[in-house]
Write a structure and sequence with these properties.
Layout: E1 3-6, H1 13-19, E2 24-27, H2 32-42, E3 63-64, E4 70-71, H3 80-88, H4 97-122, H5 125-142, H6 145-160, H7 166-191
Parallel strand pairs: 1-2
Antiparallel strand pairs: 3-4
Helix pairs in contact: 4-5, 4-7, 5-6, 6-7
Amino acid sequence: PVIAMTANAMQGDREKALQAGMDDYLAKPVKSEELRNILKRWVPRETLEPGIDDADKEVPNSGSATDGTVVEEVGPCLDPAIIQTLRDLQDDGEPDLLAELIGLYLEEAVKRLAELREAVEAGDADAVERAAHTLKGSSGNMGAARVAEVSSSLQDLGSSGDLSGASELIERLEAEFDRVRPAFEAELSKAGR
């Protein structure tokens, strides 16, 4: 099966994807539950990895998951399920994908934060909306939920054209990023072992 995935979820996109020959459609940011449901619909049950049904159960930050799988501590500011999903994408013998994604995310997030601060100072609501949208998506995909949440609030302000309160949100966003960065850097140091 071929599943279309798009960041620009517009009305009618699903129908266009299906007409183009896709088997299903998923809009970003991808939520684990939605992806799981689509995979259950399209992948024959016998080919699913053992424990797929256990994925619906809550996974703690550390210790053992309900299925007995050990879940590594990734810090309270990162979603451990997303970090594990990214780890699971790793192919044997290939460079560390998680380390590469973290490196790219940290580099791009710093740029987006600078863009946001400049756009707020310049009163450029469109630039705030664009940069916040980009940061929201990448943060959500990397498991930095609080950074994504504050970015979403900034995106909404940019979309409204009223940037009052944006400076406070930038400060909050930078504080959340300051919490997330060391957690990601810890993951990078694990990869370097």
